[in-house]
Amino acid sequence: MSSVSTFARGLTPSPPEHRQPEQTTAYHQYMHPHRILAGGAGLAALLALTACAAEPTQQLRSGQEYEPASLSEAAALQEVVSATTEFGAESLAEVAQQQNVVLSPASILVALAMLAEGAAGPAADELADLLGASGTERTEAFSALQAAVLTYDGDPALVQEEDLPDTPLLHLANQLVLSDAAAPEEEFLDVLASAYDAGMVTTDFTSAESKQVLDEWVNEHTGGLVEESAVETPDPELVFVLQNAILMAAQWQMQFDPSQTTDRDFTTAAGETVEAEMMQQTLEAAYTEHDDAQVIRLPYTEAFAMDIVLPSGNGTGTEAPMQDWTAQDWTLQDWTAQDWEAVDTAFAGEAETAVDLTLPRVDIETSEVLVSLLQGMGAVETVAGNDLSRIDPAVEISQVAHQAVLTIDEQGTVAAAVTEVAGVTSAPVEPPEAVEMTVDRPYLVRIVHKETNWPLFMAFIADPTAG
What we know:
Layout: E1 2-11, E2 22-23, E3 41-49, E4 58-60, H1 77-95, E5 101-103, H2 105-116, H3 121-131, H4 135-149, E6 169-179, H5 186-196, E7 199-203, H6 209-221, E8 238-251, E9 262-267, E10 273-290, E11 293-299, E12 304-311, H7 337-349, E13 353-360, E14 362-369, H8 371-376, H9 380-384, E15 397-408, E16 412-422, E17 434-438, E18 443-449, E19 454-461
Parallel strand pairs: 1-3, 3-16, 6-7, 13-17
Antiparallel strand pairs: 1-8, 1-15, 2-4, 3-8, 4-7, 5-19, 6-8, 8-16, 9-10, 10-11, 10-13, 11-12, 12-18, 14-15, 15-16, 18-19
Helix pairs in contact: 1-7, 2-3
């Protein structure tokens, strides 16, 4: 799975007095040699300005070394995880309209956290509410979560191999691309380097080369699952792009036998019946029933798991046959962050259950614009640029775009996502001893880091046969 997010803003031009970068004639990605992609999601943030000088792309290096926080010292860890889950649940409920949607809450919120490092006043207050923490506590929590998942860092190109890696690959990368004329505060650049390990380059957004800078980074850090940035250049008003990418590729702990995959009926969110490729196996897994839905946790070989929520319609579990369920029985608004937290609590204490699972193969990609979503969640002053003064006093967000890819098959999962924002100036039920879970109607997916329950990816599958 992979995702990329981008933010863009506008600012008035000012000279980059504090920088003495090394000039290069071609784009050069700065990242630590250990950093490799395994599967993913990403986020990019853009700023727009009124004019900028025509200089070649330059590589920047903050004087600060990457020094991530640890989970044990992150005081606001649970608040940030809860905020990420809430953002994902509300986003799916808002965006999904009887169609497939996949996004990376982790990617989007890491990007917003980096943006918050440059915010003050009303924007800082709004982002604190959205992110679950502010100041040093916010920085430490996101830095610690990033470092925890990067224990499984790997080469992004591996997602193109025929077989998924035996050990999960989880890559997360950050980059700041600045206009030649942009001059954010040095403290802002330092915290991006020390807490988020963000690479930094400058470019001339009026040149065609700037598009290559953005596209190559997105392509590399999603293993080619997302081919290019959603940000279009040349654009003389762009000031900077803040990019985050998360890419994941992982095998199931218990793989499905391809010979058992057959075509079966699936009732879509639109109420239509389609034939979907259905995988099948009987396995021991964490299972619970909550809020009139069946929930199963499918572990990968290490550290990560996929949670699947199947609404039952009338009754619970096997008491509600498929033909009794309609799209009107259950909506995404019925499943909130509190429901996810109840599931986490149940999975922490319950023994595994024998489950006869039937699950569709999935290969989907989605693209969403999220500016109005952020405004609806209270980030009105942030979008208006009031105030992002540690970046520049005259910036606003004009675009937030999110591209994502998700593949689920017998072997495991590959996912990637990209989000971009552009701007211009101006109590669980005891399950039975054996359970049948046939996923033949719309369902929810969440991929989590098991130690923290940080949601890396969330999806609503309305129709597994639709791309």
